[in-house]
């Protein structure tokens, strides 16, 4: 932790809910009930000045009326009362407060800023405001208004959206996946992503961290924590806001938003995090990375009893940028001896619709031992010739025995098609990843590969600068400072050229022209040294010129330049 430890957030001994109410489905009542249903073993108190008891449980009017100091306070009072509750909690010596209440505003003078100041003065940590709450399943804490409780497990979930938390919990419960901790951060008045990454990176009960982020408060702290966490365990990120909402014109800063996302993307990759595009990918990556370790290669072998589904799996693998493994000569010969002559003799390895359990196990052994692949995907389509559940049990047991016999076991993924009941439980019992769909499984393998690449990038050492390198850092800082002082978010082309020049990085010459005629004057001189020119629109409101047809390339005559400039201006008018 960067300031005070947050252990009390996940392992509190005493909790007070401020804002209790007997009203059905009110925040205070729901959260108090969720804590009781979760089986919280510590002291639970409800604070409300309006009711002496709620649901048969006595209440107190104020925090100071308690005969003990709670570690954790959950705040659900209306916005006008939040400041007083935080002041009371700080004076009482409470360690951490989770502020569920929304509508506290933003910026200087807002209630959000005032409670953050109050909390800092007392050494009180704040989660929120405007959040769903916190869940710590191993310690029977459900200080949230989530619709369903989370199961204990080894995934941590950090999200700036309460809706993402509830969706993820529902998904995980359906798949018997549990969590070491879940935090809905809300508006991050105090506790932020970086601090929580630090916490779960060192938590031995957390195997992977899932992160849904919309913005970063302290970028330096976040990246430092992200790099440290990624060295310890997988961190999987969904970064929202890749595009502007709706179809705006480029001049309304769509380009600026996209540019910011490119910065986020580069920073996330350099920090060793695995970025995915949506919740479906987040779940697939979590399922895979929570069961399997990163792999060195990227070649996938596919085993199936149905040729069509095998071909579909190969197609999806290639669509996602994966690599289909070739079979080694030795593996091909072994499969020839073990399988009917009608087998596919290639990847995917189709062992026939009449395949029994022993045929599956024999093929698994051959492919598992084949050094020409780096992972194995086992597919079963249901038939009346073999019990899908019995096959799943035997395959899971067999694969588990194989991997236990190896120091660095090969990843094996499974997909039993047809939604047959109880076919995934055997794989869960042996901690093997199984999937409902071909795409989910293939995507999971690709995530293993991408995660290994992310770690390699994290560990990569930048090359040393040559001894003769002499950067003009003073001028570079001045260029950036001047632009920032003018309120600019983007450097214009001339400033970019000057900035890169400070570090000896060459780029094509750039000239600004106010009119098509001025552009022609520049072109006359430039065409004596260059074969062709480009004309681009220059506007602080348009970062992606091609979005407004603001770029014309390949101009090889003086007359073509003013004509292109005039056409661009006409389109932008």
UniProtKB/TrEMBL annotation:
<keyword id="KW-0547">Nucleotide-binding</keyword>
<dbReference type="InterPro" id="IPR003781">
    <property type="entry name" value="CoA-bd"/>
</dbReference>
<dbReference type="InterPro" id="IPR016102">
    <property type="entry name" value="Succinyl-CoA_synth-like"/>
</dbReference>
<dbReference type="Pfam" id="PF13380">
    <property type="entry name" value="CoA_binding_2"/>
</dbReference>
<dbReference type="InterPro" id="IPR051538">
    <property type="entry name" value="Acyl-CoA_Synth/Transferase"/>
</dbReference>
<protein>
    <submittedName>
        <fullName>CoA-binding protein</fullName>
    </submittedName>
</protein>
<dbReference type="Pfam" id="PF19045">
    <property type="entry name" value="Ligase_CoA_2"/>
</dbReference>
<dbReference type="GO" id="GO:0005524">
    <property type="term" value="F:ATP binding"/>
</dbReference>
<dbReference type="Pfam" id="PF13549">
    <property type="entry name" value="ATP-grasp_5"/>
</dbReference>
<keyword id="KW-0067">ATP-binding</keyword>
<dbReference type="InterPro" id="IPR043938">
    <property type="entry name" value="Ligase_CoA_dom"/>
</dbReference>
<dbReference type="InterPro" id="IPR032875">
    <property type="entry name" value="Succ_CoA_lig_flav_dom"/>
</dbReference>
<dbReference type="InterPro" id="IPR036291">
    <property type="entry name" value="NAD(P)-bd_dom_sf"/>
</dbReference>
<keyword id="KW-0436">Ligase</keyword>
<dbReference type="GO" id="GO:0043758">
    <property type="term" value="F:acetate-CoA ligase (ADP-forming) activity"/>
</dbReference>
<feature type="domain" description="CoA-binding">
    <location>
        <begin position="9"/>
        <end position="104"/>
    </location>
</feature>
<dbReference type="Pfam" id="PF13607">
    <property type="entry name" value="Succ_CoA_lig"/>
</dbReference>
<dbReference type="InterPro" id="IPR013815">
    <property type="entry name" value="ATP_grasp_subdomain_1"/>
</dbReference>
């Amino acid at each position: 932790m960067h300031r005070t430890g947050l252990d009390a957030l996940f392992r509190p001994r005493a909790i007070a809910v401020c804002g209790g109410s007997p009203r059905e489905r009110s925040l205070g009542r729901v959260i108090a009930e969720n804590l009781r249903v979760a089986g919280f073993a510590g002291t639970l108190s409800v604070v409300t000045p309006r009711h002496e008891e709620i649901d048969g449980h006595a209440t107190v009017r104020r925090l100071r009326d308690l005969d003990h100091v709670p570690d954790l306070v959950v705040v659900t009072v209306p916005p006008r009362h939040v400041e007083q509750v935080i002041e009371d909690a700080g004076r009482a010596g409470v360690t951490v407060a989770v502020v569920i209440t929304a509508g506290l505003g933003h910026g200087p003078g807002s209630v959000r800023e005032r409670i953050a100041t109050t909390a800092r003065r007392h050494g009180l940590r704040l989660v929120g405001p405007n959040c769903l709450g916190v869940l710590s399943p191993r310690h029977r804490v459900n200080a949230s208004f989530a619709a369903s409780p989370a199961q204990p497990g080894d995934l941590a979930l950090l999200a700036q959206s309460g809706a993402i938390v509830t969706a993820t919990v529902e998904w995980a419960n359906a798949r018997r996946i549990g969590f070491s901790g879940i935090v809905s951060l809300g508006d991050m008045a105090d506790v932020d992503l970086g601090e929580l990454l630090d916490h779960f990176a060192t938590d031995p009960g957390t195997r992977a961290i899932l992160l849904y982020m919309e913005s970063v408060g302290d970028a330096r702290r976040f990246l430092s924590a992200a790099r440290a966490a990624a060295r310890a365990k997988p961190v999987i990120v969904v970064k929202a806001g890749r595009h502007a909402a709706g179809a705006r014109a480029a001049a309304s800063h769509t380009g600026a938003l996209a540019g910011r996302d490119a910065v986020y993307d580069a920073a996330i990759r350099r920090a060793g995090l695995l970025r995915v595009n949506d919740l479906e990918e987040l779940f697939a990556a979590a399922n895979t990375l929570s069961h399997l370790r990163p792999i060195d290669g990227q070649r996938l072998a596919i085993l199936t009893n149905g040729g069509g589904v095998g071909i579909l799996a190969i197609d999806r693998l290639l669509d996602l940028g994966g690599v289909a493994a070739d079979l080694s000569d030795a593996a091909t010969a072994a499969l020839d001896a073990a399988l009917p002559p009608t087998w596919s003799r290639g990847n995917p390895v189709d062992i026939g619709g009449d395949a029994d359990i022993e045929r599956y196990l024999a093929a698994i052994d051959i492919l598992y031992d084949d050094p020409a692949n780096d992972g194995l995907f086992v597919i079963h389509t249901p038939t009346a010739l073999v019990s899908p559940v019995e096959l799943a049990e035997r395959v899971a047991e067999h694969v588990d025995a194989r991997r236990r016999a190896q120091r660095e076991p090969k990843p094996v993924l499974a997909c039993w098609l047809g939604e047959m009941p109880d076919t995934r439980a055997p794989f869960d019992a042996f901690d093997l990843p199984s999937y409902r769909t071909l795409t989910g499984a293939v995507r999971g393998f690709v995530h293993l590969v991408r995660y290994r690449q992310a770690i390699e990038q994290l560990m990569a050492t930048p090359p040393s600068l040559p001894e003769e390198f002499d950067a003009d850092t003073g001028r570079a800082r001045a260029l950036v400072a001047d632009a920032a002082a003018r309120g600019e978010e983007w450097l214009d082309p001339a400033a970019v050229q000057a900035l890169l020049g400070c570090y000896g990085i060459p780029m094509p010459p750039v000239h600004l022209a106010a009119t098509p005629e001025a552009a022609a004057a520049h072109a006359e001189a430039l065409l004596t040294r260059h074969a062709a020119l480009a004309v681009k629109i220059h506007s602080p409101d348009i970062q992606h010129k091609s979005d407004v047809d603001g770029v014309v390339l390949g101009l090889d005559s003086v007359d073509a330049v003013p004509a292109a400039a005039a056409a661009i201006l006409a389109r932008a008018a």
